[in-house]
Design brief:
The structure holds two protein chains of two kinds. Chain A is mostly helical. Chain A contains 16 helices and no strands. Helix content of chain A is about 70%, strand content about 0%. In chain B, strands 1-2 form a two-stranded antiparallel ribbon. Chain B has 14 helices and two strands. Classes of the chains: A mainly alpha, B mainly alpha.
């Protein structure tokens, strides 16, 4: 995997040419766009501490004064968001992440580190399944899982993750291929079998790639809406995405629009977004390298 | 992804006269390792694909057993279903205009970030950020920003005594609004473009400067050709996701106003899970699948003319 933040150091003559007024124009455009890009999030955060009057005033209030901090507590309690968080984390995102990382590592090892005739064909088939849209299999899978009695459980969301994901299999395969073969050979001479080589040698060395897969899977599950929408119908099973939408439906329907609906929704949105901001700030490089690897080397 | 790497797949020779014992053992071992994918492929891809084909030839409401009706669902969709036409036109608009706009925006951002500037990492994080926020939250924020009565944007317009813009409640503006939001959250494509731009060998630019090229020449004759495989990749991804987009339009507009943002996947979802017409939904799914395959195929076939693959690249 290449580091993409490689410092650019053109020769001096070229440097001069680049440092033209063009550079200041670039900064100006970037600043304007940057402010525009962040404005929606600022609006979310500032609206979450508004009271009802501040929401409906023209011109819009950008800095609520006084801020109504209690919104965060009240909104979180307006529905059982503790339970929704628990559901999202322990019943959906975590098992899916474990399943995906384990199964993809195993499968990628079979495609990358064992030299067997036919693997090229299987790998091509594996990649081509990325073209099958979720919607094509959505209806029959729903029927299958319903007949298994898995409707209204987390099983239809979790179990398939233990069978690999072509996107991540591809990513891990690329990474595994880059690990020197001598390491495996040395282990083989010491009597290790292929599973031991995978778990003791390859996986520790491939930690950055495994973290990318884990993070992307986790965030995908944390943010998923359609999956839970199809399979989970009881409020005590709701994930955060369904929970927010549930709060929205109960608070802001046209007939019974309740006071503070928008501040509450923005407050909950802010709370749900904060863990993502933290994960992202800590793992930014991992993220960006993972995404660019899949796109570039592909 | 898959696309570009096909060329580099190891070519295995299956037609060996005698498969030795070690080779047999290796095949077995390989199959064991990929068995989770193999099993999943059969259970969650092949079987659903085939049964979806079968269901598309039936009337099935989940309560009574499927009733075989032949091509009736397809006939209804293509000849009687006026909503299908609306939905298809909406989706083609959304994909055909929204996809390229998102890709263009991502390329522009990546190009700006690839200049020699301070704080590149911070800007990159900032532009990427919308891509990791849950769609439910994105939908809420934008519905609140774009609202006609109390949205921030219209609030500013009103205080400047300018007419309000009905972003989401005007049938002509709802789709452009969604396209704008998608361009705003095209951070993933931007990150991929940025990496591609940084991979362009600097010697090419230096050689071009020696030959007297200006900034435009460098951009048009070096940057664009060298990044064209990634442009193709991002376009394909944008098209495939565009065809499948569900959450944002569902939560932001619910298909309205006047069905102007009712897209293919939402219509499919409604048929399956609201009207319980599993047969028709399956037929719709198959049509979508064929269209996506066809679209990708056309993009590939025509890409030979404008995509440049440098040889000897790692």
């Amino acid at each position: 995997m290449k580091t993409i933040s490689s410092k650019q150091g053109p020769s001096k003559k070229i440097k001069k040419q680049i440092q033209s007024p063009f550079k200041y124009i670039t900064y100006a455009i970037l600043l304007v766009l940057g402010v525009g890009w962040m404005l929606p999030f600022y609006w979310m955060a500032s609206s979450s501490v508004k009271n009802d009057q501040q929401v409906f005033v023209v011109p819009p209030v950008w800095i609520p004064n006084p801020p109504r901090w209690i919104n965060f507590v009240e909104a979180w309690g307006a529905q059982n968001f503790n339970l929704f968080t628990f559901n999202t984390f322990f019943r959906y995102a975590l098992p899916v992440t474990i399943g995906t990382v384990l199964s993809c590592a195993l499968i990628a090892y079979g495609f990358a580190r064992i030299d067997w005739p036919g693997r090229g064909v299987f790998f091509a088939i594996c990649l081509s399944t990325m073209m099958v849209p979720f919607q094509v299999t959505m209806v029959p899978l729903f029927i299958i899982f319903k007949n298994l009695g898995w409707n209204n459980t987390f099983l239809p969301l979790v179990i398939p993750s233990f069978f690999g994901n072509p996107y991540f299999i591809f990513l891990l395969r690329q990474f595994f291929k880059g690990i020197p073969e001598e390491l495996s050979d040395a282990a083989r001479i010491d009597g290790a079998n292929e599973f031991e080589i995978l778990f003791r040698i390859i996986m520790p060395l491939a930690r950055p790639a495994l973290i990318v897969v884990g993070l992307l899977t986790f965030m995908g599950a944390w943010n998923d809406y359609l999956g839970p929408l199809i399979y989970l119908h009881k409020p005590d099973q709701y994930t955060l995405s369904l929970g927010i939408q549930f709060l929205r439906d109960t608070m802001s329907s046209k007939v019974t629009r309740m006071a503070l609906a928008y501040p509450y929704l923005m407050a909950v949105s802010t709370i749900v977004t904060i863990p993502l901001v933290i994960i992202f700030l800590f793992a930014q490089r991992t993220f960006i390298e993972g995404i660019s690897t899949t796109g570039i080397k592909g | 992804m898959g696309v570009i790497s096909f060329k580099r797949l190891p070519i295995t020779q299956m037609n060996r006269r005698k498969i030795s014992r070690t080779v047999k053992r290796k095949i077995l071992l390989g199959l064991i390792f990929i068995s989770p994918w193999l099993i999943g492929f059969v259970l969650f891809t092949i079987y659903p694909l085939i049964s979806s084909m079968y269901y598309s030839l039936t009337n099935y409401d989940l309560l009574r057993p499927p009733l075989f009706v032949g091509l009736e669902n397809y006939r209804e969709i293509f000849t009687q279903d006026s909503v299908f036409r609306v939905v298809t036109a909406n989706t083609l608009y959304y994909v055909g205009i929204g996809g390229p706009i998102s890709v263009l925006m991502a390329y522009l951002l990546a190009f700006l970030l690839n200049q020699k500037i301070k704080g590149r990492a911070a800007f990159r994080a900032l532009f990427f950020f919308p891509a990791i926020v849950p769609s439910v939250v994105i939908a809420l924020i934008w519905s609140f920003l774009l609202n006609t009565q109390y949205g921030a944007i219209n609030g500013v317009l009103q205080s400047l005594e300018m007419p309000v813009i009905r972003f989401l409640s005007n049938p002509g503006l709802a789709k452009p609004s969604l396209i704008m939001i998608n361009a705003w959250s095209s951070g993933t494509a931007m990150v991929i473009f940025l990496a591609a731009l940084q991979n362009v060998p600097r010697e090419y630019y230096e050689a071009a400067i020696v030959d007297g090229a200006n900034a435009w020449h460098k951009f048009w004759f070096i940057t664009i050709p060298m990044t064209s495989p990634v442009i193709l990749y991002n376009l394909i991804i944008a098209f495939i996701w565009g065809f499948q987009d569900f959450t944002l339009p569902m939560l932001l507009t619910g298909g309205g106003p006047n069905q102007s943002t009712l897209f293919y996947t939402m219509y499919l979802y409604n048929n399956a899970f609201l009207f319980l017409r599993m047969g028709k939904a399956s037929a719709l799914a198959w049509i979508l699948f064929l269209v996506i395959v066809l679209f990708t195929f056309i993009l590939f076939r025509t890409s030979g003319r404008w995509v440049f693959y440098s040889s000897g690249e790692d």
